[in-house]
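User: Here's a structure from my thesis project, written as structure tokens. My advisor, Dr. K., wants to see whether a designed sequence matches the one we expressed. Can you design one independently, without my sequence as a hint?
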């Protein structure tokens, strides 16, 4: 016992905090990775919402070419003749039909990749809550239960919020 708390309870608490931390980091890294990949795919291009058009580094306009509303993507294309005569084409596209950009209408919260990572985070939080709940049954001493509850309640709230967010995302499909 350390400070009136069983060592196994402290180990379970440490492991639950680790799982919660991993769930948080997973969400953080996934959000960063998605934003980075989106910015990379459109690097050097500027979007002008008032014109509903993109502008390439050479100053050419990419106008709306198509939309996939099921996937929440709008496609913008530069004119083929503009791209084929551009000195920057070899750094931009290998297409003879002009550069094509995807503009995603959904935010991070609504994206498929978010739902995937949120599900993994939810599993980690669920495991943390499960471990803490089992330990609170196994160790009924007031000090042990108080220590477990101090982490069980916030972990349960985080798991519940994560689950509700995931439920909102999947109902939209």
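Assistant: Designed independently from the structure alone:
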């Amino acid at each position: 016992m350390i400070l009136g708390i069983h060592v196994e309870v402290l180990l379970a608490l440490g492991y639950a905090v680790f799982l919660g931390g991993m769930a948080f980091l997973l969400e953080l890294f996934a959000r960063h990775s998605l934003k980075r990949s989106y910015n990379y795919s459109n690097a050097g291009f500027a979007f002008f919402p008032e014109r509903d058009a993109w502008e390439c580094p050479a100053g050419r306009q990419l106008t709306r070419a198509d939309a996939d509303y099921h996937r929440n993507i709008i496609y913008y294309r530069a004119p083929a003749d503009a791209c084929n005569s551009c000195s920057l084409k070899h750094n931009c596209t290998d297409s003879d039909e002009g550069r094509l950009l995807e503009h995603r209408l959904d935010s991070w919260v609504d994206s498929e990749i978010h739902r995937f990572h949120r599900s993994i985070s939810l599993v980690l939080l669920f495991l943390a809550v499960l471990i803490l709940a089992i330990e609170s049954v196994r160790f009924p001493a007031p000090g042990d239960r108080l220590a477990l509850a101090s982490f069980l309640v916030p972990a349960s709230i985080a798991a519940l919020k994560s689950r509700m967010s995931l439920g909102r995302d999947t109902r939209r499909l």
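When you compare it with your expressed construct, this may help: Residues 7-35+111-171 form one domain.
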